[in-house]
Amino acid sequence: MNKELIIQELDFKAVRSSGAGGQNVNKVASKVVLNFNIQESKALTEEEKLLATTNLANRLTNEGILILNCDEDRSQIRNKDIVIKRFIQIMDGALVVPKIRKPTRIPKSVIKKRLKNKKNLSEKKQLRKPPEH
């Protein structure tokens, strides 16, 4: 994944934010909305696109667009930086290929030990019974 190319493909939109800012909130668009279309990206390979769409399926719109918002700060520039960092973290997590689990075999010595313990416990309990006449 080439981060510089992906960042160039991002689509930003500034909208009015709710929350802190006083009178400034009514006239300044400090909230940043990031849109990224995974399928039309030229920075991702086909395998990366497939992996990202499957891992981010619950975060994508019906058109396959990832939308992120940030209105944590009063500054539009800082909100843009925050949303870019968040986007990169999400994409890094989405492009991780999970390791294939290899089932382990139980060693023969462990099986023998378990059976021996079972047999010893059984004998101990048999010795507790009263003798038969």
UniProtKB/TrEMBL annotation:
Gene Ontology terms describing biological process: rescue of stalled ribosome
Region described as Disordered: 107-133
Gene3D superfamilies cross-referenced by the UniProt entry: 3.30.160.20
Comp. bias regions, Basic residues: 107-119
Hydrolase among keywords: yes
Coiled-coil regions, chain positions: none
EC numbers on record: 3.1.1.29
Molecular function (Gene Ontology), one example: ribosome binding
InterPro entries associated with the record: Pep_chain_release_fac_I (IPR000352)
Basic and acidic residues bias locations: 120-133
Domain Prokaryotic-type class I peptide chain release factors stretches: 16-32
Signal peptide segment: none
Keywords from the UniProt entry: Hydrolase
Keyword Hydrolase among record annotations: yes
PANTHER family given in the database record: PEPTIDYL-TRNA HYDROLASE ARFB
Protein name in UniProt: Aminoacyl-tRNA hydrolase
Organism the protein comes from: Flavobacterium arcticum
